[in-house]
Specification:
The structure is a homodimer. The first copy, chain A, folds into two domains: 24-90 and 251-454, Aminopeptidase; 94-246, 3-Layer(bba) Sandwich (Glucose Oxidase, domain 1), CATH 3.50.30. Chain A has an eight-stranded mixed β-sheet, sandwiched between helices. In chain A, strands 3-2-9-5-6-7-8-4 form an eight-stranded mixed β-sheet, with helices on both faces. The radius of gyration of chain A is 24 Å and the shape is elongated. The two termini of chain A are 31 Å apart. In chain A, helix 2 (40-51) packs antiparallel against helix 3 (59-75) and helix 2 packs across helix 7 (287-306). Chain A has twelve helices and 16 strands. Chain A has helices spanning 2-37, 40-51, 59-75, 135-140, 163-182, 223-235, 287-306, 328-339, 366-380, 398-404, 418-421, 434-454; strands spanning 79-91, 97-102, 105-108, 111-113, 125-132, 149-152, 188-192, 218-221, 240-244, 248-262, 267-277, 313-320, 343-349, 357-362, 387-390, 408-413. The A-B interface holds A 31-32, 35-36, 41, 158-159, 161, 163, 196, 198, 356, 358, 382-384, 386-387, 414, 416-417, 420, 433-436, 439 and B 31-32, 35-36, 41, 158-159, 161, 163, 196, 198, 356, 358, 382-384, 386-387, 414, 416-417, 420, 433-436, 439.
Chain lengths: 456, 456
């Protein structure tokens, strides 16, 4: 019995080793193909330079959809189609303005209206400023708010090593600050940009109004100018600020998830989804957020096709229509999947920038997570991925998890530079490094291959 | 017996756990202090913007030494001194020129003379070009070399994930190409820049002549222009190139290793060295190479001092005088240590850029390496370091290993962007990210703390 057990184990181990060898060789082919013949960087160049910023409902949204269809066809998708999806239409209008006024001196401020915010009247608003460093301070000073512009001066906490925690901590002021100040009679709000950058670019992003309260204009201000306002108020409490924004919301319109598919050989009706979001904020080119996620996902398909890999499951690349504003793209995709009773075995997303990968977050039970850590990390570590952290996907694939319990995952690149660019005018192509981008595509392709071959 | 063994083990484990807890708390303090009060970024700003490029023997070398003395004093060193060190003095002179000439058409090329190369006569050299893709091809075509400019068109291999391997593979042509071509009568050489960048910056760096052969001028050419030359030669074999360089070598002069020390409390005569090199190539500001290594090392001292840590061993920060050219700084430091019979317990170097750290390479026996992997990686992983690879230090601390057998180590940051900047005109401050730089300093400080406390 011992001998047969031993023999059995030996066969088991040698077949595991053989599989690992084969996987390691195939992943090396994936890497070589992407590093030698990859299209992610040139695809990103086309998207950012010929389409540019592509907020939902804008003419660029439709141009981006056309780009996506073409890129997926060129990558070798068996079929490519558009999935209709209602999307919001918030419009910035003419460039917003802001000035800090101290006595006779006026200095313009680097600002961006926040997504979904309302504009000012034609003449703008000039009002005294109340600086608060937190919501707690707002509550303490609620009697001083009326008629003022509230300036939220909450700083991105540098102590979080993973910067997304710093973002999660600070973004409350952008999201909810306007209504919380309007409750006490504020006429507008300025929010220190949610960034750990060392420059003065303002960073926009979505905000939400509490519909039971007056809607007041809301703008993000660059880091240096946030300091400038704080300094000015220390010198002179009577400093005022002028703002003028032309932002407004129009009725919803129709956008599309752009979908490309390689049909599976064994389980054509079972789907593996990999995607990024096609929409972006308007002030720049939407390079890291989330052009890189789109081209990563297209590259997964291109590479598997180029290497002649025949997936067991159908692999779908989805360029989601709306992540930035209301998350309509991901919701629509899961909703239609539910209607059609599709079976979704995995969803992977890239929406944390085109930086060198470090890991994937993944929603799996502890034993399965431990298993893939043991078996797959040795295959990926050479390419930079050394951890599968316990977590979910992003906003676009999480609805699959909610609807079907599908395991979902997100690429976790190094996060140090992400919030330098996020939602700001410097999120352009030149700030993406070709090799860092390609390493993301390599690891995503390898993960899709492993999931297709072994499941969880 | 089992019970006492169990009790013994329990005490052992709990004391290990207690120590790990204490270490983890202290390393968190290191991180917080660097992220909140760190000086590495502002130190780098001063070095790059007020001193700039600082090749050995240049006036900037002396300015850099003054900067280093002051920065170390400001960081809280117990003593700071200069260690005299003979250094080479290669001078670029007036800006080099190169033109590609096809028929009547002349196009200027982005070039930099290689370090240690000789210049041309006043009128420059105009000659036909022989393109070779490798030394093998040079040997095959040796009869065609005479009177020509040999153009080494060897490309940086993108398949190496760790870019330093790509560098090691391609740098042969920069180092030895001139003499190997001169052997067959070449009048000069051009070398495709040793970089995986997507731009056209030329990248300089050291070359060496074989003194038994004629010395011919040698220049690096930018990537786009290397392609341009190759294309032109395909169209027209009679294309010629004009070059003019004013490079020359003067007699050696005196530079200095700049040294700052915190004196140890238990073993003041045993040294832990941490350093980077103060010299840089001249075309830019020497930011990633190796301003970041200098400010990393100074930050180790500043942080330990700021936190009131009293090291057991004396900790020395060394800003080495010459790494780029002949390696005189590191050699001198080890030589004097030998003369003085110093005991060196550890040498750590940062000379791979100010990018987010991934690991340390370290020269240790396998069992010791395994031990620190097990005990220290869990302490560092939160800050980005997940591996101790088997390897040595860099050129500056390796002489300690050679002289005394001292364990030496080097910070291994993510390498994807390093050769975009290395030795090129875009190695300037703005290409260093504050947080990435600071994470390097955090991990280096933590490693020095652990080595001081536990040894190997």
């Amino acid at each position: 019995m011992y001998r047969s057990l031993f023999t059995g184990l030996a066969i088991l181990f040698s077949s595991i080793l053989f599989a690992q060898k084969e996987d390691s060789v195939f992943i090396r082919q994936i890497a070589d193909d992407i590093l030698m013949n990859g299209k992610s960087y040139s695809n990103l160049h086309t998207l950012t330079k010929t389409v540019g910023g592509r907020i939902t409902g804008s003419p660029q949204m439709y141009k981006a959809e056309d780009w996506g269809m073409k890129a997926l066809k060129d990558a070798g998708a068996d079929k490519v189609w558009l999935q209709e999806c209602k999307v919001p239409r918030w419009v910035r209008g003419d460039k917003e303005q802001a000035k800090l006024i101290v006595g006779n001196k006026e200095e313009s401020l680097a600002v961006l209206a926040l997504g979904n915010s309302v504009g000012t009247e034609t003449n703008g608003i000039t009002a005294p400023v109340l600086l608060v460093n937190s919501f707690e301070e707002l509550e303490q000073k609620k009697d001083e708010v009326k008629g003022k512009i509230v300036f939220y001066n909450y700083k991105f906490n540098p102590k979080f090593i993973e910067t997304f925690y710093g973002y999660g901590d600070a973004v409350r002021y952008r999201g909810a600050g306007a209504s919380r100040a309007a409750k006490y009679g504020a006429v507008a709000v300025l929010v220190r940009s949610v960034t750990n950058s060392t420059d003065n670019y303002p960073h926009t992003g979505a905000m939400r109004y509490d519909n039971s309260l007056p809607k007041v204009p809301a703008l993000a201000v660059g880091q240096w100018d946030a300091d400038k306002i704080a300094d000015a108020l220390q010198q002179n409490k009577n400093a005022t600020i002028f703002i003028k924004t032309n932002a407004h919301t129009m009725s919803d319109t129709t956008g599309h998830n752009v979908i490309g598919e390689i049909t599976g050989t064994e389980f054509p009706d079972q789907y593996i989804t990999v995607g990024g979001h096609l929409d972006s904020w308007d002030p720049a080119e939407g390079a890291h957020d989330d052009g890189t996620g789109c081209v990563h996902s297209i590259e997964v398909l291109r590479t598997l096709k180029a290497l002649g890999y025949k997936p067991k499951h159908s692999i779908r690349v989805v360029l989601f229509a709306d992540e930035e504003n209301r998350g309509d793209g991901g919701e629509k995709y899961a909703e239609e999947a539910k209607e059609k009773k599709e079976k979704h075995v995995f969803g992977l997303e890239s929406d944390a920038g085109g930086f060198t990968p470090r890991g994937f977050s993944i929603a799996l039970p502890a034993d399965k997570l431990e298993k893939i850590r043991k078996e797959w990390i040795p295959l990926l570590q050479e390419y930079g991925v050394y951890e599968f952290s316990n977590g979910g996907g992003g906003a676009d694939v999480n609805p699959l998890n909610k609807t079907f319990g599908t395991p979902v995952s997100e690429l976790r690149p190094d996060s140090q530079r992400y919030f330098d660019y996020h939602h700001s005018p410097n999120d352009f192509f030149e700030n993406v490094n070709k090799r860092e981008l390609e390493l993301g595509a390599i690891n995503m392709t390898a993960l899709i291959y492993l999931v297709d071959k072994y499941g969880f």
